[in-house]
Specification:
The protein has 237 residues and is α/β, with parallel strands linked by helices. The protein has a 5-stranded parallel β-sheet, with helices on both faces. Strands 10-9-8-12-11 form a 5-stranded antiparallel β-sheet, with helices on both faces. Helix 2 runs parallel beside helix 3. The chain is elongated. About 2% of the residues have low confidence.
Length: 237
Amino acid sequence: MEKTILKCAIVDDSTLQRLSIVKLIQMHPSLELVGEYKNAIEAKMGLASTEIDLIFLDIEMPILSGFDLLDDIQRKPQVIFVTGKTKYAFKAFDYDAVDYLRKPIAKDRFLNAVHKAITNYKLKNEEGFDDEDFIFVKSNLKKRKVFLNELRYIEALGDYVKLVTEHESLVVLSTMKAFEALLPSDRFLRIHKSYIVNLDKVQRYNSKTIELDKDHLPLSRNRKAELIEALAATQNA
């Protein structure tokens, strides 16, 4: 299934704040930065000719505020407000904001906000919600929906397993054998007694390890041939 990519823009009069958001966007596999503006007037002109799905928007800016910008543009994208003050939070949600982030932005809050935007986008565009594309797991006494295209790998932790997604890690009371049976075999592979990996996330491998971005997972000797065959099958699918 094709990965969902949200085209996004930043509007903030602080150069340092824009740089920090740029870095977070560049590290996220589902975001593509297509516009960066230092005030709402620039943004209004730029957005008139650029379609975006998500905007990271400061509120207090000279001449036009973030709210003024939203009032002026016709094609309204999803909005994540980014501000140093909490006093605008109530008004922000009158604009159907996805989230309201305080400066300086914590990475986990950024990831959670983007995850909401991706989910909203999929619901609106009816993407990625077939029965086979997510599973429900119970973590911290709550049922959680985990989308398979966001699941990177599963790690054994004694009587539990840890699910590592693009956004978070969840610890679930289960066995590796149970998860191996639950996940589609054409997309996930047991590469080691303690690891199951999403084949779409594999970037490199050698005789001992598999690389998924910054994660290096062990590869069992007797699984290498199976990995090569499985990766070839995903490329030919």
